[in-house]
Amino acid sequence: MPLYELVCIAKKFPMNDLTKIKSLAKQSALFILDNGGVVKQINYLSCTRLPYRMRKGPEIHAEGVTWTMQFYSNPDTMTGLKNVLKFESDVLRQNVIKVGDKLAQISGKSDALPLSSSNL
Q1: CATH class (in words) of the domain with range 3-102
Q2: CA-to-CA distance for 82 and 103, rounded, in angstroms?
């Protein structure tokens, strides 16, 4: 299964109330788990001013909360997660990045053993 990373920007809530962000992350993680994937890590990055104003429905947002989630899943599950988040009212933007397919791409190590006289 490939490793993916979800980068999500959600609406900023009054007084930095993170309960809705936690429920978004939990909903996303449960979607991955229910479809046979594995969640590796969830990170809350920051509540910051956005680089440009973003519209979601009739509202325009200048600030947002960014969080990420790394997960292993098949491509159909990843597409399903993107579709679920697209229609979520609290999500301004989401993007899923494919980190890698093979263990060497994910870990940064090469598959081949170095040739030396001790390996022969």
Answers
A1: alpha beta
A2: 24
pLDDT in tens, 56-87: 888 899 999 999 999 999 989 999 999 999 99
The CA dihedral of 5, 10, 15, 17, to the nearest 10 degrees, is -60
Residue (of 9, 79, 85, 19) closest to 47 by Cα position = 9
Cα–Cα distance, 36 to 43 (Å, whole number): 21
Q: Give alpha helix (H) positions in the chain.
A: 19-34, 75-86, 103-107
Q: How many Å apart are CA 51 and CA 45, to the nearest integer?
A: 15
